[in-house]
Amino acid sequence: MLKKVAAAVAVMASIAGTSAHANQANWTVSGVITTAPCVLTIQGTGDAAFGTLARQTVMSWTKEINPLRHSSMDAGLIKSVPLDVTCTSPGKFALFVADNMASTVAGPIGETISFGMGTTSGPTPVNLGRYVVRYNTVQIKATSAAIAAAPGKILIVPGQATVGMTGWSAAAGNEAKYLPVGKSIGFGLLPAATTPDALANVSAKLEIGIEPLVSVITDMSSNITLTGSATVTLITL
């Protein structure tokens, strides 16, 4: 073995001695070490644009009670916002949803799925009603190569989740179908999951429906502008 090594060195020395090129070369080391290996994307503009709706059209929608309001979702009018979380390697994360117009909600008392969509104009503004955000075709992948499938369980916890947080519970009732406000949402691979699992991808088509109060639509004397706004935060666990 020692002889082979010595021969190799001699050949290399001979080549270097007869070369007319520089006897130095460089390499570089690059890359990124990130604290957030997952990226949240809302595709498109993120705008659930309902356009211009005639008053008569809204008045023809199915009515919900307590409080009395028209429902675009019941009338089949919804707007979709595709959401995606992709990780460079499987990681645990949660989504926290905050309503930027929470003070303008006018909807069923005690429900956690109501988002505000603004007020009427004028000297005495009135809350317009609410909108809701429904899950549709939620798909998760444990690894980038895995086949996407529905989550075994949707988990929630009040407030913004933190690393090692306990108290996760299965989303139930309306919170299993609609995004809750002010809570963190995680996803389990299996129905027995008690905390969010490490995932490579979550994708969902969020369906938004508006519910203006019947009294607001009945009494309107000028155009009403919807100004709903919410923020989704990706939390690494």
Characterise this structure:
- Residues 1-19 have low confidence and may be disordered.
- With 237 residues, this protein is mainly β.
- It has a domain at 42-91 and 99-150 and 197-236.
- It has 3 helices and 12 strands.
- The strands form 3 sheets. Strands 1, 4, 6, 7 and 11 form a 5-stranded antiparallel sheet that branches. Strands 9-8-10-5-12 form a 5-stranded antiparallel sheet, with no helix packed on it.
Features of this protein?
single chain, five-stranded antiparallel β-sheet, 3 helices, 12% helix, disordered N terminus
Map the helices and strands.
Blueprint: H1 2-18, E1 38-42, H2 55-59, E2 63-64, E3 69-70, E4 79-91, E5 93-99, E6 129-134, E7 139-141, E8 153-158, E9 169-170, E10 183-188, E11 199-212, H3 214-219, E12 230-236
Antiparallel strand pairs: 1-4, 2-3, 4-11, 5-10, 5-12, 6-11, 7-11, 8-9, 8-10
Please give the radius of gyration in angstroms: 27 Å
Helix content: 10-25%
Task: Identify the quaternary structure here.
Answer: single chain
Number of strands: 12
What characterizes the major β-sheet? Answer: 5 strands, antiparallel
Shape: elongated
Structural class based on helices, strands and sheet pairing: mainly beta
**What is the residue-averaged pLDDT?**
87
Measured between the Cα atoms of the first and last residue, the distance is 52 Å
